[in-house]
Sequence to fold (181 residues):
Amino acid sequence: ATVSKDYFSPVFQGPATKQQVSLAINVAWGEEELPALLSILKQYGVKATFFFDGAWVKKFPEMVRRIAADGHEIANHGLYHGHPTRMSKEELRRLVLENDRLLAEVIGGEPAKLFAPPYGEFNDQVVAVAAELGFRTIMWTIDTIDWQRPAPEVIIRRVVEKLKPGAIILMHPTVPTVQAL
Fold:
């Protein structure tokens, strides 16, 4: 893909032209909840984008392959869950590229050129390094804050109150997230 100037700005929402939203599921833990989560997505014919942390991928490659086989988009959450805004350009390149290579090896194909920075941390350097490597930096429109494990009703309310076409909904594999779905 050709890197355009758009790549140098983080993406907070998708196109508002269709009545659609995106589910962005960051995975650095929560493997116990993934089977139930995947089953619900399959039941409703929903495809999500899963952003994987490389350290987790090394522990659960078969789970990544299963998610890819289910037709979900496989994307990059960094080689490890470090703080991108504190990293040098060299370390940022490694964070993105080594995880991209790891994901490609695990799924036997090309992962999406999408990068969700760990902790949602970004600055101009983080976005520029990702862009130079051919990656869009993906943020979110709606944060479920599900990693704090609120009641499912709280997750649902957070989403429904801000729901609009093109919204990117950030989630993690937690018990209340599965209940909310």
